[in-house]
Design a protein that fits this description.
The protein is α+β, with helices and mostly antiparallel strands. Helix content is about 40%, strand content about 25%. It has two helices and five strands, in the order ββαββαβ. The protein has a five-stranded mixed β-sheet with strand order 3-4-2-1-5, with helices on one face. α1 runs antiparallel to α2 (about 75-100).
Length: about 110
């Protein structure tokens, strides 16, 4: 199962997301659920980097664990745009989880900071 966790600060803004696991919907290379979730996570990172010119902290390991952490000092105008990108990724992955609930789970956690 893929597990996507979105971390929110005390003001409700997404500051980080982590995507771990494998869907197990189909064989490796043919798994459309895994590909869809991966594409949304990667698109969010590309949006932050190439559209907003932010440099998030990104980790991707061989097990497929993807972590994206927003920088701490994002200016207010870019922060709003970053939230739009991250919320779009969240609702996209949530929509996949709604259709494939045996294969994808979305969680939200509060970090209480900021």
């Amino acid at each position: 199962m893929i597990r996507a966790v979105f971390f929110r600060d005390g003001q409700g803004a997404i500051t980080r997301f982590e995507i771990t696991g494998h869907a197990g919907f189909a064989d490796r290379g043919d798994d459309i659920v895994c590909a869809a979730v991966s594409a949304l996570g990667q698109a969010a990172i590309l949006g932050l980097e190439e559209v907003l010119h932010l440099v998030p902290e990104v980790e991707l390991d061989e097990e497929g664990r993807l972590v994206c952490q927003l920088p701490a000092d994002v200016p207010a105008d870019l922060h709003r745009a970053a939230q739009a990108i991250l919320e779009t990724a969240r609702v996209g992955i949530q929509a996949i989880a709604s259709d494939y609930d045996e294969y994808v789970r979305v969680e939200e956690r509060s970090t209480g900071g900021r």
